[in-house]
Design goal:
By secondary structure, this protein is mainly β. It has one helix and 22 strands. The protein has a 22-stranded antiparallel sheet that branches. Strand 17 and strand 18 form a beta hairpin. The longest helix is centred in the first third of the chain and has 26 residues. It is rod-shaped, with a radius of gyration of 29 Å.
Length: 339
């Protein structure tokens, strides 16, 4: 399990919204566009929309810069846990002196110590751990629950040496079925598992209040899911291998919202982006930038309808004024260059 924490990245420094409403000048729509770009390399062009936009570092930076690190940390943490745990369940089948005359039914015996120092105390079926029992390893790790054919199977609880705990269903020495994994940091996953990996529906929460509720595959968020950040912003929609992919809606706490298509945590494809003051963009995106055909509407009703490239008007377009007057022309990199 991996924590998504904005305290460790630039998204925790929320800038106040800066609104730069442009004048509509026929010859140059964007001459009034001037924004401070002290951290421009970190801010997606889609957030710095054109000439009228609001700068808010708690927006898509969360999805992009933060998720890259989170993915790696989560995979490495879970992998190391799985490998370490599996190293516990590899004891050789013991050979008892009177094994030839052992009854083929479960029985309680005195605690048995394996060559590696692990101690099993519970039920046996012949030479095999079978039934209810507990096993403790020299480093302090412990499993308590049910066994079958010498493997953890059924309901059981495993204590990791670092304080993490898994409690739930087991099969073939691995978490399988429903179970709860509690991390000592306060993070928690409750849901379905398959061969030690999150698989199916689950709910994951973190100490800072963030939460994901949705589907997993091979230990990664995959399918439909809802993620809520600790500041109240949220994404609901499709995921593919821990990344936002497909159709989904991202909502900010200040009233802004994007609803549309995504690819690899970027707005990509057709979408609608709205602002709390009534502004709206409806059209194509490519890698978080307006790209293709789109309509931008100001709060007072003015519109630009036409082509976009890399977040700016580029190509043929038209300005539609409040009184219905239409002014057509050509734009290049956000500037009107001809009729």
């Amino acid at each position: 399990m991996g924590q998504i924490s904005c305290s460790s990245c630039s998204c925790s420094d929320k800038e106040k919204e800066v609104k730069l409403e442009p004048e509509i000048v026929e010859e140059n729509l964007n001459n009034t566009s001037r924004m401070r770009r002290a951290q421009a390399s970190e801010i997606p062009e889609s957030i710095m929309n054109l000439d009228e936009i609001s700068v808010d570092l708690t927006s898509l930076i969360k999805i992009q810069s933060l998720w890259r690190g989170y993915q790696v940390r989560k995979q490495l943490t879970h992998l190391s846990k799985s490998v370490n745990k599996q190293s516990y369940f590899n004891e050789e089948i013991p050979v008892f002196k009177d094994s030839g005359s052992m009854p083929l039914q479960r029985e309680e015996r005195a605690p048995f110590m394996y060559k590696n120092g692990a101690v099993y105390n519970g039920q046996w079926l012949g030479n095999l751990r079978d039934g209810y029992g507990s096993q403790t390893w020299p480093d302090g790790a412990k499993y308590q629950g049910y066994w079958k054919n010498n493997k953890a199977e059924g309901f059981g609880k495993f204590w990791h040496i670092d304080g993490d705990i898994y409690e739930g269903n087991w099969r073939y020495d691995k978490a399988n079925g429903k179970g709860v994994y509690s991390h000592m940091s306060g993070a928690r996953y409750e849901g379905e598992w398959k061969d030690d990996l999150q698989e199916g529906f689950g709910i994951e929460t973190w100490a800072d209040g963030s939460q994901y509720e949705g589907f997993y595959k091979y230990g990664k968020k995959h399918g439909f899911g809802l993620y809520i950040w600790n500041d109240g912003s949220k994404y609901i929609g499709q995921w593919v291998e821990n990344q936002i992919n497909g159709s989904g809606t991202y909502s900010w706490t200040d009233g802004r919202k994007y609803e549309g298509e995504w690819a690899n945590n970027n707005m990509h494809g057709y979408g609608v982006y709205v602002w709390k003051d009534g502004r709206r963009y409806e059209g194509d995106y490519r890698l978080d930038k307006k790209h293709g055909h789109g309509i931008y509407t100001w709060a007072d009703g003015r519109k630009y309808r036409g082509e976009w490239k890399n977040g700016k008007q580029h190509g043929q377009g038209e300005m539609i004024m409040v009184d219905g007057t239409v002014k057509k022309g050509f734009w290049r990199e956000g500037k009107k260059v001809g009729k």
